[in-house]
């Protein structure tokens, strides 16, 4: 069973990657799709008209030039004009390709796919209508329907349910199947040239389209996170909030998936192989060809992934509420102390990724902008070299401004203090990690302790770069997905899994007699344990919970204070994942009220919806256009530029009528807002009350847990007296984590068996 | 050639960010210049067996991150190092200015007797030089360091730097200044079998305090 579905399962992740092997999805996925065919001037006939509307987010700054061969998506045979439009919030491009064009493209793709890679690339892009429009019909807006609409749609429907419940595997299979089904349907329709698939909808709704993708979050649920997911799930009901795992990606993604599933499993497999290594593993052989992740050549970031990360981290909101802030930071003169170091590092990030390969190229420029902006945004933190790889990974998936806010969220919320002077937070986490290792893999723990190998010796790079320089790329993306959803816990778990497999058996330890050998072993981790499927499975089944980490955190902090005194730097509280971030946000919302009203409508609205939903839901404002009379929207859609590029920019071709509509909308909006405001307040109060109650309950639980532990501790102590060996082993096991049930003990039993 | 060696030395490569520490290491281990490298976060390492003064010595080299804020983390690597390459960039005065701090770190955290060689790297970029040879050699003299200007790009003096450092350590062992048996000396003797074999011959005059090798 495992083998069979494997290819199927794989696709979900591929979301993240710019690319499913199959042509159509790829392009679409790649937000601002520009396929930059890495190769030599493949600038085939096609390169002509890729019109990029609205520079909004979708516009990848580097797009235009990056590829030596600006073989941008070419419509080749079709010759149709491709409009890649970036809607304000959605990097997803919606390409209103004429139906005919689409069809043609599709055929073309099919033909091309088998052939030479470069060509395929080109073909891929061209056919790709847009995220939502796999078929290429202008009308179809399947994916991007408004929240409510989402459910109605066939592809979307599956999502809510699945998301919440499914474990990794389940998700993979079930979700996939469904998707594939949809896909098939779609595909057929596409081939026939039928335009309308979208049952629910008004034929074209540009803006929302973009939103939909947002909803797709490819997160892998960990075992315990049930709560998280529920939460997320509930949000999704509000709108396309965060949905579950990739497999179920509702809208667009599902379409893409389906298409990709149908068209290219084999290819995808091949792709996987090619992408096995992260840049570090690629040795300088630069073929002018990229793998699907953009290494060694280059392709684009994937819109869906970007959306998911932005919503999960809530960086999206920061972006919306701080229009122009990034530019402002960019213009400010930076501290030369930081700028020097940043400049030195620019060419040292993923040198085998197309985006960053060229000195002074777009990737490096953007990297500079982001890193510099951060030093100005947080002058107290400045620049840490480990931020560069993180920023680079973000840049591979989203334009600079979005990436900046995402970085801010990572540094402030997910991993506060990691990059601050002194690196105390990372050292503290090292200690926490070591304590957790004692529970999870006593054998490795003992070995490392005997060799006097401090955790910081091996985990610094793992944690600070969130494994971006350690794991194969497919796994990196997967881990990042999980990380954005569930926070630092994922990093701990991945590290524990890696250690367990690197040093978890007696034979392995035998070859690591000294410190150096051990370090070497940790440097050259077994390939198998880093493979996406394996790793994710292990990670999700590891009984390391937030509560456990927090408890260890307290214990180690105490120890730290006893031995080293107070922490020099006190970072803000670490938030465990998306849910915590959004909860905090909600708590802080009131004070932000007034300022937001000054901001663009999108911000306001999104706030409202979020407050109501509690989870990140796309700002309704994005759906602005659609909010208007449906017929109007349809009309617009028939134009060449159905989607609205950015909330602020005036992208609409139909000027006057739009104007009127807008005014009207404006009025409606205001009314709605007032109402919402009222509702929100009420809801917030209620929530506040509920939260407090929950908090109380939790605290009580914690106390109980603690007491239990104490008891166990005592028992242990008693047992210790009975026999040394016995006690040693017991100790290694550590007090079982309450939530984990007997899992840990099972693991440990296995470990012990090695003796 | 299985791991047979007479001694094993632990080396450090330290210095400010962007001075070419990793490239020096790479050049020494692989004999080529690493064109596209990541910057070091935490630590990198490598080892190579060399022959110095008739002895085979395995060098275990730990290459550390250069940015100031990583110092608190990289300190863990210093323990038990016998030698160190202290690297600065001849085209950057700033990296030269921070040498004293690095040196203090090495002497306090590794061992006061650690053998340090100062390396002015990027010798190939002579036109952009900001630190003169004279100036640096004076600094070296004052602080009892050896000194070389190196180029990780061309490979010039790279091997020499490591070998020179190793030779000095060997001499210290021979002169009894450094006791390999002492833990934390950064020196280990070769494997036990080798030691046994050599036992009879170990009367060598060279080593007043033979480690048994």
From TrEMBL, chain A:
Residues 299-487 form the Rab-GAP TBC domain. The lineage of its organism: Eukaryota, Metazoa, Chordata, Craniata, Vertebrata. Residues 27-55, 99-116, 134-163, 594-615 have a biased composition (Low complexity). It comes from the Eukaryota. One of its GO terms (cellular component) is plasma membrane. One of its GO terms (molecular function) is GTPase activator activity. Residues 658-721, 740-755 have a biased composition (Basic and acidic residues). Residues 646-655 have a biased composition (Polar residues). PROSITE patterns: TBC_RABGAP. It comes from Jaculus jaculus. Pfam families: RabGAP-TBC. InterPro entries: Rab-GAP-TBC_dom, Rab-GAP_TBC_sf, Rab_GAP_TBC_domain. GO terms for biological process: retrograde transport, endosome to Golgi. Residues 1-167, 568-755 are annotated as: Disordered. This is TBC1 domain family, member 10b.
UniProtKB/TrEMBL annotation, chain B:
Transmembrane segments: none annotated. Keywords: Endosome, GTP-binding, Hydrolase, Lipoprotein, Magnesium, Membrane, Metal-binding, Methylation, Nucleotide-binding, Prenylation, Protein transport, Transport. It is a lipid-anchor. It is found in: Cell membrane; Early endosome membrane. One of its GO terms (molecular function) is G protein activity. Its cofactor is Mg(2+). InterPro entries: P-loop_NTPase, Rab4, Rab_GTPases_membrane_traffic, Small_GTP-bd, Small_GTPase. It comes from the Eukaryota. It catalyses: GTP + H2O = GDP + phosphate + H(+). GO terms for cellular component: cytosol; early endosome membrane; insulin-responsive compartment; perinuclear region of cytoplasm; plasma membrane; recycling endosome. The small GTPases Rab are key regulators of intracellular membrane trafficking, from the formation of transport vesicles to their fusion with membranes. Rabs cycle between an inactive GDP-bound form and an active GTP-bound form that is able to recruit to membranes different sets of downstream effectors directly responsible for vesicle formation, movement, tethering and fusion. Belongs to the small GTPase superfamily. Rab family. This is Ras-related protein Rab-4. It comes from Jaculus jaculus (Lesser Egyptian jerboa).
């Amino acid at each position: 069973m495992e083998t069979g579905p494997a290819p199927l399962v794989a696709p979900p992740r591929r979301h993240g990657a710019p690319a499913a092997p199959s042509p159509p999805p790829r392009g679409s996925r790649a937000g601002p799709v520009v396929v930059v065919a890495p190769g030599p001037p493949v600038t085939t006939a096609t390169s002509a008209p890729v019109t990029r509307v609205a520079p909004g987010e979708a516009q990848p700054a580097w797009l235009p030039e990056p590829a030596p061969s600006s073989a941008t998506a070419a419509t080749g045979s079709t010759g149709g004009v491709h409009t890649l439009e970036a809607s304000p919030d959605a990097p997803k491009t919606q390409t209103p390709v004429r139906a005919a064009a689409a069809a043609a493209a599709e055929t073309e793709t099919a033909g091309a796919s088998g052939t030479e890679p470069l060509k395929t690339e080109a073909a891929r892009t061209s056919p790709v209508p847009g995220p939502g429009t796999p078929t290429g019909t202008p009308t179809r807006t399947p994916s991007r329907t408004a929240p409510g609409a989402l459910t109605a749609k066939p592809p979307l429907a599956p999502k809510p349910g699945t998301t919440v419940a499914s474990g990794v595997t389940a998700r993979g299979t079930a979700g996939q199947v469904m998707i594939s089904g949809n896909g098939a349907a779609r595909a057929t329709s596409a081939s026939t040239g039928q335009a309308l698939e979208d049952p629910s909808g008004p034929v074209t709704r540009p803006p929302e389209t973009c939103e939909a993708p947002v909803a797709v979050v490819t997160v892998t649920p960990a075992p315990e996170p049930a709560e998280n997911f529920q939460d997320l799930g509930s949000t999704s009901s509000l709108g396309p909030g965060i949905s579950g795992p990739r497999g179920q990606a509702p809208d667009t993604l599902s379409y893409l998936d389906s298409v990709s599933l149908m068209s290219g499993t084999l290819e995808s497999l091949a792709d996987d192989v090619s992408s096995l290594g992260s840049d570090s593993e690629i040795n300088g052989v630069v073929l002018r060809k990229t793998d699907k992740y953009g290494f060694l050549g280059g392709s684009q970031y994937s819109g869906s992934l970007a959306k998911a990360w932005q919503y999960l981290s809530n960086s999206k909101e920061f972006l919306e509420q701080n229009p122009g802030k990034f530019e402002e930071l960019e213009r400010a003169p930076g501290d030369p102390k930081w700028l020097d170091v940043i400049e030195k590092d620019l060419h040292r990030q993923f040198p085998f990724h197309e985006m960053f390969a060229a000195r002074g190229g777009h990737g490096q420029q953007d990297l500079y902008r982001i890193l510099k902006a951060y030093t100005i945004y947080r002058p107290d933190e400045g620049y840490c070299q480990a931020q560069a790889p993180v920023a680079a990974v973000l840049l591979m998936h989203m334009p600079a401004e979005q990436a900046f806010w995402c970085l801010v969220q990572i540094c402030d919320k997910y991993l506060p203090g990691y990059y601050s002077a002194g690196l105390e937070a990372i050292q503290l986490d090292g200690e926490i990690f070591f304590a957790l290792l004692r529970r999870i893999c006593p054998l490795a723990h003992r070995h490392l302790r005997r060799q006097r190998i401090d955790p910081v010796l091996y985990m610094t790079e793992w944690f600070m770069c969130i494994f971006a320089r350690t794991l194969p790329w497919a796994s990196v993306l997967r881990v990042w997905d999980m990380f954005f959803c569930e926070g630092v816990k994922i990093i701990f778990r991945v590290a524990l899994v890696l250690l367990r497999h690197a040093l978890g058996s007696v034979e392995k330890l035998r070859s690591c007699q000294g410190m150096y050998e051990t370090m070497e072993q940790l440097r050259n981790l077994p390939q198998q344990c880093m493979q996406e499927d394996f790793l994710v499975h292990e990670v999700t089944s590891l009984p390391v919970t937030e509560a456990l980490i927090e408890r260890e955190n307290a214990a180690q902090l105490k120890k730290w204070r006893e031995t080293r005194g107070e922490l020099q730097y006190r970072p803000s509280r670490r938030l465990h994942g998306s849910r915590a971030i959004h909860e905090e946000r909600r708590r802080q919302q009131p004070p932000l009220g007034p300022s937001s009203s000054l901001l663009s409508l999108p911000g306001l609205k999104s706030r409202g919806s979020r407050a109501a939903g509690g989870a990140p839901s796309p700002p309704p404002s994005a759906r602005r256009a659609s909010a208007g009379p449906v017929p109007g929207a349809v009309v617009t859609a028939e134009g060449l530029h159905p989607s609205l590029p950015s909330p602020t920019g005036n992208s609409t071709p139909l000027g006057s009528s739009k104007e009127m509509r807008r005014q009207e909308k404006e009025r409606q909006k205001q009314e709605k807002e007032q109402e919402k405001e009222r509702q929100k307040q009420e809801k917030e109060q209620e929530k506040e009350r509920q939260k407090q109650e929950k908090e109380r309950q939790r605290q009580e639980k914690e106390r109980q847990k603690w007491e239990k532990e104490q008891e166990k501790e005592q028992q242990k102590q008693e047992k210790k007296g009975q026999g040394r060996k016995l006690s040693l082993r017991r100790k290694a096991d550590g007090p079982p984590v309450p939530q984990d049930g007997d899992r840990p003990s099972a693991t440990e039993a296995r470990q012990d068996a090695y003796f | 050639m299985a791991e047979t060696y007479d001694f094993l030395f632990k080396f450090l490569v330290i210095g400010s960010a962007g001075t070419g520490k990793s490239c020096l290491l790479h050049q020494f281990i692989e004999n080529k210049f690493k064109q596209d490298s990541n910057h070091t976060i935490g630590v990198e390492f490598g080892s190579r067996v060399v022959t110095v003064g008739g002895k085979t010595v395995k060098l275990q080299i730990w290459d550390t991150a250069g940015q100031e804020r990583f110092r608190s983390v990289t300190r863990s690597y210093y323990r038990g190092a016998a030698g160190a390459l202290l690297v600065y960039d001849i085209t950057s005065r700033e990296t030269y200015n921070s040498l004293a701090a690095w040196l203090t770190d090495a002497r306090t955290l590794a061992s006061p007797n650690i053998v340090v060689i100062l390396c002015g790297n990027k010798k190939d970029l002579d036109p952009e030089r900001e630190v003169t040879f004279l100036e640096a050699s004076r600094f070296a003299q004052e602080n009892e360091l050896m000194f070389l200007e190196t180029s990780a790009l061309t490979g010039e003096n790279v091997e020499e730097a490591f070998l020179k450092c190793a030779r000095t350590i060997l001499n210290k062992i021979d002169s009894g200044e450094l006791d390999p048996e002492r833990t934390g000396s950064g020196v280990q003797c070769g494997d036990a079998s080798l030691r046994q074999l050599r036992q009879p011959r170990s009367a060598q005059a060279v080593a007043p305090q033979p480690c048994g090798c």
